[in-house]
Amino acid sequence: MTAMSMLALLLTHPLEFLTLAQFWLYHDKNRDISSPSEHATSGWDRQSMRRCWEFLDLSGRSFSAVVKELDGDLARTICLFYLVLRGLDTIEDDMTIPDDVKQPILRSFHEKTVTPGWTFKENGPDEKDRQLLVEYDVVAEELNRVAPDCRDVIVDICHKMEVGMADYAHKAASTSSLYLATVAEYDLYCQYVAGLVGEGLSRLFSASGKEADWLQYQLELSNSMGSLLQKTNIIRDYREDVEEGRFFWPREIWGREEYGGFKEMAEMYVPANQERALWVQSGMVVDALRHAQDSLDYLRLLKNQTVFNFCAIPATMAMATLELCFMNPDMFQRNIRIRKAEAARLIMRSTNPRGCAYMFRDYARKIHAKASPSDPNFLRLSVACGKIEQWCERHYPSFVNVVQAQGNASQLFDPLDTRTRIVQVEQKQAEELLSRKRRVDGKPVALETPAAT
């Protein structure tokens, strides 16, 4: 941000200015992968890997920074994993490539991605990530340097993903079917393009030794993490996708009679259809929220702090984006994003499962507060938000506050919550029982105090 924009922010949104100042002063200190001490793990001493890091930076400063913070050589592995899938996606998205050319490339991309010297120069001139494929030989060179078990994971996920992408690209080109018909088909698409990313990341976390070996087998939770992010992006990018001829919202949702029976997705950005379009959007948000609990379950399994941050920050930003889009007619007219101060706040707070769970809960409450009883999805939305609230209360009861003091964690109970009285009664009964046993036995007896639930 420029000095003038910061001054304007200070005058118009002083609290946001304070948040950004805190972020830049205390948190915006990234790992220096160019430092000689990091060369062994970051590969910065090689020209080919430096170019890969540059391509990663082009994806977005925030995402690149989170990747670079990962421990050891896991950062380099995830960087290459992202570039491989970005290259695959660039070919699949390019509508200027004929289907008879696109199909063999997509279906053999997992082989080409480890072929030394392979590049691709047939993308359209306006394709955003065209240069990545023009210089893809640097990715192949570096991928062949990765540990074999991690490289095998990347190649396997690429192979699975390319099959799904090729099938959908061929369907669109040969049948002129530009729509996903059912929610099941929508889920399958998201599983191919995002759920497999979640699976691959879990397998890489395990293969690198940063997380437990059994994490790689949590396929349902990994898929939900990826699907939550993908569905959020699909909802937010409605206008951009429609204008470019990409229709990812399933007809089973937007074509329902209870929403007035839209015939085409483009009808939803017509101002006269605003209310009914918001009902469709509400249905899409309800569908995305069903992945929230699995995502929270997944975050609770992570032990490495940098891995947790890498997964938690996009998840909390997805919830913030859903809240921003919900019942917001501007989403149908342009691409909207959360404010920079909000993103900075989420990055600073996404450091532990409890904090993330409460952020999920807070955004779910905001979504529910904007819901209208006239919306056909009102009850379904209320249930979805209630499930997030229930999950948080079950795993992190709101009347229990965890306080850190001198390196030790202690629990303080809210005196105004009636559940505190129950816990206090149980603790008193346990102490009395312990005292009686000591008098009878004449010696100390170890007895665990019932845990607060």
From TrEMBL:
Q: Which cofactor does it need?
A: Mg(2+)
Q: Which Pfam family is an annotated match for this chain, by its short name? A: SQS_PSY
CDD domains registered for this protein in UniProt:
Trans_IPPS_HH
One of the record's GO molecular function terms? squalene synthase [NAD(P)H] activity
One Gene Ontology term of the biological-process aspect is: ergosterol biosynthetic process
Give, as in the UniProt entry, the pathway in which the protein acts.
Terpene metabolism; lanosterol biosynthesis; lanosterol from farnesyl diphosphate: step 1/3
One cellular component term (GO) for this entry is: endoplasmic reticulum membrane
The membrane spanning regions, by residue number, are: none
Q: Which UniProt keywords apply?
A: Signal, Transferase
- Could you name the domain of life of the organism this protein comes from? Eukaryota
Annotated SUPFAM superfamilies: Terpenoid synthases
Q: Which residues form the signal peptide?
A: 1-21
Q: Which family does it belong to?
A: Belongs to the phytoene/squalene synthase family.
- This protein's name: Squalene synthase
**Organism annotation:** Heliocybe sulcata
The taxonomic lineage of its organism, from the top, reads: Eukaryota, Fungi, Dikarya, Basidiomycota, Agaricomycotina
